[in-house]
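Table S2 (text version). Query chain:
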Amino acid sequence: MEDVSNISTEILLRSGLSTLALMALVFLIRLGIHHTLLKSPEISVETRRRWTVSIRNLLLILFILGMIFIWAPRLQTFAVSIFAVAVALVLATKELIACLSGSGLRMLTKAYALGDRIEIGGIRGNVVDHNALTTTILEIGPGQTSHQYTGRAMVIPNSFIFEHPITNETYTKKFRLHIVTVPLSTDDDWKTAERLLLQAGEEEAAPYIEDARAYFKKLEGKYWLDAPSVEPRVTIQLPEPGRINLLLRIPCPTQYPSRLEQGIIRKFLAEFQFTPRFSSPSVDCRQV
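Corresponding structure-token output:
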């Protein structure tokens, strides 16, 4: 063991002396050439400057090549050891690295921020905390149409960003376009239902129309998007035989869709009469 240690020390010492010799040689060559250029009156100043820079760069390249030649056999053994350690470290901390990478991707793309309502990996709620490794979400549910807190906090690793798409329901921050879906039977008077639903939407959304219009117009210039119409409108879907869906789209404050939604549903139910076979209305909310 002592022989191996002595051999290693001798090799390092020899390499160190070779490095010092190379440095001295390069320095002397540069000094000699520089001294020769300064003593040549027939060479212009511009030519001297150009030659000085070129020779300096050439000597630097030769010095680097010499260092590689001297230390390459020693560095090869060291590099193999470092590579083995690095591979083992990556394998042991791959989940940690994935979380850190996910955090970097979140910051780079601005996918979500504190207070945003997102859905990722089937988990939906408001972001209440995030750090380099995890994101904490205050769950909202049950289902995709609810806006009530369940009282549960979900802590998810940031690596989820690579594994699942992210839905940000509050991407437009201040205002959003909210959709209320009312299912009807084909036996119901859908024309009257459409009129009453639109009327209820216009009454409830009236305080927000002008502010929402100005806000989306501002976003149009900021994100180069076509500003959507904020006027309440009803569209019709036929999801299956015997059923009609009325979809009311209205502008509303991003953080308070439930209040507006409940006001519209209550006004609509107070005016419209359903057939006995009608099931209770449901509400769907999604970002437009």
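Notes on Table S2: Residues 277-288 have pLDDT under 50 and may be disordered. The two ends are 73 Å apart (CA to CA).
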